[in-house]
Amino acid sequence: MFSKDRWFEILETIKNNKLRTFLAGFTVALGILIFIILFGLGNGLENTFKEYFKDDKFNTIFISGGRTSKPFAGYESNRRIELTNEDMEDITNKFDFFIEGMTPRLTISSEVGYKLKSNNYTIRGVSPHHQYNEMTIIMFGRYLNELDVLNKQRNIVIGRLVKQDLFGDEEAIGKYLTGGGRSWKVVGVFQDDTGDNEERTIYAPYTTMQRILKNTDEVDQIILSYNPSIGYDGALELEKKLKTFLKNKKKIDPSDPRGIRLRSASKDLKENQDFSDALAYIILLVGIGTLLAGVIGISNIMVFVVKERTKEFGIRKAVGATPKSIIAMVLQEAIVITTISGYLGLFIGVGILNGLGDTLKKDYYITDPYVDLNTAITATIMLVIFGAIAGYIPARRASKIKPIVALNDK
Predict the structure, then answer these.
(1) Is 69 helix (H, G, I), strand (E, B) or coil?
(2) 350: nearest Cα among 43, 26, 28, 37
(3) How far are the Cα atoms of 122, 215, 228 from residue 110, in angstroms, in the given order?
(4) Among the listed residues 30, 19, 31, the one whose alpha carbon sits nearest the alpha carbon of residue 305
């Protein structure tokens, strides 16, 4: 039942015991503040991992050739292994059931110009499926298509910063760039959320690039996308079978770790996610420890408060106060202090995280730290509950003291 007199009494007690109230409130606010900051920094680290991997689809395997480290089947060691168009066809035929799409990648660096402007850019020969693997976003025009590849067209898709460097505010679609003694028609402009380097890249049909590079059929890398339904374990098994197949085809020692290199985006993601999860658990444990320290702190203060007010409780009981009313008074005071202090710590912590933004990204790999509102409120409510329990235990003990004993307390 609401009692105006009880509230006035609590406020008067708080007013008359400023230092005691401050210490109790500071303990609670600091516990919540540290919890919010730690939890937010953990989420910021997880954001960095997500941003790092958003350049590639998770169901992607990258295959590239290397140099053999062991002799095998009459071949010497240190043999350069080249991947070709035929390898892509054989992989498609062999693993068709698992594969959603595939693209080769050839990469060169060349001076590219438009009118009086020019710069050095990375040019990648790819197929249309490359857009899926890299999650490329088309701003204007279109991406490369199968006809571009089949007819070996000199059509290109340029990055946003290439367009900005060479065209400025001028329309780029349909215009021609020069590079390597040839002209290239711009059919699309793309953007990439992973940074400036990607947006200073030019995509061309890989068949066109192969023809320019002395009619070769070699590729630097093969990128394939597998069916996500096979899961992480299925992806590892597919990777193992791909490596075995290519080693047999290229006559590479099965135990040679260097002839064929495979990298799975899902494997990289899982390894880093495991690290991120472990770090999050550590931060969570430290945060919970901080909350427990706050509970212990408020408990100690409430024990002191109750002991200090023992004579007061004795007088109250002597004039007719019931043990229940004394407990209720102490609990209400504890809840008021912990609630106000807890939410003050919550708002300060959230404010600090919002103020940090991306300032920790460069040095500490923490991007946009935040804390879920439900988590923050739940933690604060839990601390308030424990604060109430911390006040209840000594208050219940004090309520059982006989008035004559309480009055004789010094």
Answers:
(1) coil
(2) 37
(3) 7, 18, 36
(4) 19
Query: What Rg value do the Cα atoms of the chain yield, rounded?
Result: 34
Instruction: Please report how many Cα atoms fall inside a 13 Å half-sphere around the Cα of residue 78, on the Cβ side.
Output: 0
* 225 φ, ψ (degrees, to nearest 5): -110, 130
pLDDT digits (tens, 9 = 90+) for 245-269: 999 999 999 999 999 999 887 776 6
Nearest C-alpha neighbor of 41 from the set 378, 350, 290: 350
Amino acid letter for position 208: T
Mean pLDDT of 100-104: 94
Count H helices, E strands: the chain? 15, 12
Size (the chain), residues: 410
Tokens 């495991």 — which residue? Answer: 274
Label residues 159-175 b or e (16+ Cβ within 10 Å = b): bbbbbebbbeeeebeeb
> What is the DSSP-derived secondary structure letter of residue 230?
G
Q: What is the percentage of the chain residues whose pLDDT exceeds 70?
A: 94
The alpha carbon dihedral of 50, 54, 58, 62 has a sign of negative
Helix boundaries (H) for 54-169: 85-94, 130-134, 146-150, 160-166
* Residue 57, SS3 per DSSP: coil
pTM of the predicted structure, to 2 decimals? 0.63
Three-class DSSP category at 62: strand
Distance CA(211)–CA(46), nearest Å, equals 44
Residue 366: CB partners within 8 Å, gap ≥ 6? 41, 44, 45, 47, 48, 356, 360
